[in-house]
Design the sequence.
C-alpha cells in the first residue's frame, strides 16, 4: 500500500518475499502502490493460499479514536479508487478483509506494519500486554472471516523464513512460527477473544526491545492443529446440485431447540450445529433442497444466524438478522447437505446463545416428479386495509381465507406460490400463520412481530382447495391486524415452468464493499446489478432465490427488489426502521441481461446499504 516516503522500501520488501515464493511456484500476483486499490487487491486475493500485506496499519486500540472502527481498523492502507498516489493512504478495515474470499486454510503474512503484532506506532511507547493482545486478536479477525486460518504478524523481520517453511516443511503452523530465526521464547498464548476456536500467541522481544521500548513485534492467531500440508491444499466441499422440481407441503416443524426437536439445547455463538431434514416430517431421502421458515427466539445478543448445507464456523453469508431478545423469522429456499442435513451458526460475540426454530413448507427433488416454477413481476393479491382479497382486518385466532388463483397472474392450475407477507397495524404482538388450511390453532408460524410493527417475511406456500390461502393472527382474543401479501411466482404440475438449482449461499451484492454495486442506495432511485455469470449462476437463469439485507438506513420504510428498475414500486420486499439491520428472503425473476433491480422506498435524500446472498436459481 501507500507508505509515503518509504513506499520504495516496502516495494523492496515485497520483491524479496516474491523472490522467495518464486523458488516454489510461478503463481504469484504482485499489487503495488500506486495501483493497490481495494478492487485490485480483492480481485488478486480471491482464492489465494498465502496473502502478504506490507504497508500502513490502523489497529485498535489506538491514540486517535476511543472505539473500534471496523470499516477502517484492522486491515490495509491502500490507494484511493482513483488518482492513486504513494502519498495518499485510504484505510480498509476488518469488514473489508472479510470479503477477501481466500483459499481454504489460507495463511496471511503481515509485515512491517503497526498494530498487527500488538505494537504501537514508532515512538508511541510500550503498550500494556492487555492492549497488545487486543490488537493482535482484532487485527486477525477480518482476515479469518475472509477464509484465512492463520494470521502471522512479523513487525521487523523478513518473511522469507516463513515462506520457505510453508513450502518445504511438514510441520504444524505453530512449529513453523516458533521455528523462525527471530523466535524470542517469551510466548504468551490465549484463546482469542475475537475469534472463537482460535489460539492467539505473542512473542515479545523482552531481552532486546526496539529503541522506543516496544517489544511486541511477533504474533500469530491460528486454528489449533493446522499444518503446512493443510495450507491451500484442502479443497472446499463442493456439492453439484442437479435441477429440481418442487413438492409443496403443509408446514411442519423440524427444529425447535427449546423442546429438543431436531437439536437439544441452545445454539452457542460461532459454533455450528447440524440437524437432520430428510426422513423427517415427510421430506424424502432424495430431497436436495427445502423451502421453509427459520425463527430466532431468546437470543442473548444481536447479530445474525447462518443456515446452509454445510457447517461454517465463520460464514460469509447470513440468513436472518435480529436484535437481542427479538423473536423474528425469515423464509428461505436452501440447499441440503449431501447427507440430507442443514447446519446453523449463530454469529455473535463469544458466549452468547439463542434458540432456533425451523418449519419446512416443501422440498425439491432432482427429477421431474414435482412442480415447475413460473416467476412473476410482483403483484399485490391481499391488502386488508383497502378490501383487496379480504374486506376487513384479521381478528385474533379467527382464520380468514382469500383467493389466489385467477388473480395477479396466477392461473387456476397453480399448486403453490412464492411471495411476501407483511403485517401492518397490529393491536398486539405475536405471529401470523399462512398456509393451505383454515386453522384457528396453527402448530407453525410464518411471521412473528411486536405490537404495531410493520414487518414482512418471504415464503413459499402450498395452495389450498380451490387455489386459496388461509391466514390466522395468533394473539390474545379481541386483537386485530391488517395483512398484505404480494405474490412473486407460482408452481404448476408438469414441465412447462422452470426447474430449480440449489446453490451453496453466495454473496452477489454488498454496496458497503463494492460487491455488485459501489456506494449506498439513494431513496427512490432504482439501481440495477448483474446476477448471471457470477457465483455459479448461468446466463440462462430466469430467476433466483436468496436473502436481501438492509444495513445502515438513514430513515425507515421499505426496499423493493424485482426484475425491472422501478422508482415508485407498488409492492415491497422488506420493511425496516431507521438504522435497523434487517433481512428477508425472496424469489425474484431476473430482468433483461440477467439483472436484478432494487429501490429504497423512503423520503428523498435518505440512503441505505443493501446486501444480497443468492441460494439458488431457476432454469427454463
Sequence:
Amino acid at each position: 500500500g501507500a507508505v509515503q516516503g518509504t513506499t520504495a522500501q516496502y516495494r523492496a520488501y515485497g520483491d524479496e518475499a516474491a523472490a522467495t515464493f518464486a523458488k516454489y511456484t510461478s503463481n504469484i500476483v504482485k499489487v503495488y502502490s500506486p495501483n493497490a486499490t481495494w478492487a485490485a487487491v480483492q480481485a488478486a486475493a480471491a482464492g489465494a493460499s498465502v496473502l502478504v500485506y506490507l504497508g500502513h496499519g490502523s489497529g485498535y486500540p489506538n491514540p486517535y479514536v476511543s472505539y473500534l472502527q471496523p470499516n477502517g481498523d484492522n486491515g490495509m492502507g491502500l490507494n484511493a479508487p482513483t488518482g492513486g498516489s504513494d502519498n495518499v493512504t485510504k484505510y480498509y478495515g476488518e469488514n473489508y478483509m472479510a470479503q477477501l474470499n481466500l483459499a481454504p486454510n489460507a495463511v496471511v503474512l503481515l509485515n512491517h506494519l503497526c498494530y498487527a503484532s500488538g505494537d504501537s506506532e514508532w515512538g508511541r511507547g510500550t503498550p500494556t500486554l492487555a492492549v497488545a493482545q487486543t490488537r493482535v486478536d482484532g487485527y486477525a479477525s477480518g482476515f479469518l472471516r475472509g477464509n484465512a486460518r492463520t494470521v502471522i504478524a512479523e513487525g521487523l523481520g523478513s518473511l522469507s523464513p516463513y515462506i520457505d517453511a510453508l513450502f518445504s516443511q511438514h510441520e504444524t503452523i505453530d512449529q513453523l512460527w516458533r521455528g523462525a530465526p527471530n523466535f524470542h521464547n517469551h510466548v504468551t498464548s490465549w484463546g482469542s477473544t475475537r475469534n472463537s476456536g482460535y489460539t492467539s500467541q505473542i512473542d515479545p522481544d523482552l531481552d532486546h526491545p526496539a529503541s522506543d521500548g516496544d517489544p511486541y513485534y511477533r504474533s500469530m492467531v491460528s486454528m489449533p492443529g493446522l499444518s503446512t500440508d493443510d495450507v491451500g491444499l484442502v479443497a472446499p466441499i463442493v456439492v453439484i446440485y442437479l435441477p429440481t422440481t418442487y413438492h409443496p407441503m403443509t408446514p411442519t416443524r423440524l427444529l425447535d431447540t427449546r423442546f429438543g426437536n431436531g437439536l437439544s439445547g441452545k445454539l452457542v455463538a460461532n459454533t455450528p450445529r447440524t440437524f437432520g431434514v430428510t426422513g423427517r416430517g415427510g421430506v424424502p431421502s432424495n430431497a436436495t433442497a427445502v423451502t421453509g421458515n427459520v425463527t430466532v427466539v431468546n437470543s442473548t445478543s444481536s447479530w445474525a444466524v447462518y443456515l446452509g448445507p454445510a457447517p461454517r464456523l465463520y460464514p460469509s453469508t447470513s440468513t436472518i438478522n435480529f436484535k437481542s431478545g427479538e423473536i423474528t423469522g425469515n423464509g428461505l429456499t436452501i440447499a441440503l447437505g449431501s447427507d440430507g442435513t442443514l447446519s446453523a451458526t449463530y454469529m455473535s460475540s463469544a458466549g452468547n446463545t439463542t434458540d432456533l426454530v425451523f418449519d419446512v413448507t416443501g422440498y425439491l427433488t432432482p427429477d421431474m416428479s414435482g412442480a415447475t416454477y413460473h416467476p412473476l413481476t410482483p403483484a399485490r393479491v391481499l391488502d386488508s386495509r383497502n378490501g383487496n382479497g379480504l374486506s376487513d382486518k384479521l381478528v385474533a385466532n379467527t382464520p380468514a381465507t382469500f383467493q389466489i388463483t385467477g388473480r395477479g397472474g396466477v392461473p387456476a392450475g397453480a399448486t403453490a406460490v412464492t411471495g411476501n407477507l407483511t403485517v401492518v397495524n397490529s393491536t398486539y404482538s405475536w405471529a401470523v400463520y399462512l398456509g393451505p388450511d383454515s386453522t384457528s390453532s396453527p402448530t407453525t408460524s410464518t411471521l412473528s412481530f411486536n405490537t404495531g410493527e410493520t414487518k414482512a417475511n418471504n415464503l413459499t406456500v402450498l395452495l389450498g382447495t380451490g387455489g386459496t390461502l388461509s391466514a390466522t393472527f395468533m394473539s390474545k382474543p379481541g386483537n386485530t391486524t391488517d395483512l398484505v401479501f404480494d405474490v412473486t411466482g407460482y408452481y404448476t404440475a408438469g414441465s412447462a415452468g422452470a426447474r430449480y438449482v440449489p446453490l451453496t449461499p453466495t454473496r452477489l451484492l454488498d454496496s458497503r464493499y463494492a460487491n455488485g454495486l459501489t456506494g449506498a442506495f439513494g431513496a427512490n432511485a432504482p439501481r440495477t446489478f448483474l446476477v448471471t455469470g457470477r457465483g455459479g449462476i448461468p446466463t440462462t437463469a430466469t430467476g433466483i432465490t436468496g436473502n436481501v439485507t438492509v444495513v445502515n438506513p438513514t430513515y425507515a420504510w421499505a426496499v423493493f427488489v424485482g426484475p425491472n428498475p422501478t422508482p415508485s414500486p407498488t409492492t415491497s420486499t422488506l420493511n425496516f426502521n431507521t438504522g435497523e439491520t434487517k433481512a428477508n428472503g425472496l424469489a425474484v425473476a431476473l430482468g433483461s441481461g440477467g439483472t436484478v433491480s432494487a429501490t429504497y422506498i423512503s423520503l428523498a435524500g435518505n440512503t441505505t446499504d443493501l446486501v444480497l446472498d443468492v441460494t439458488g436459481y431457476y432454469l427454463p
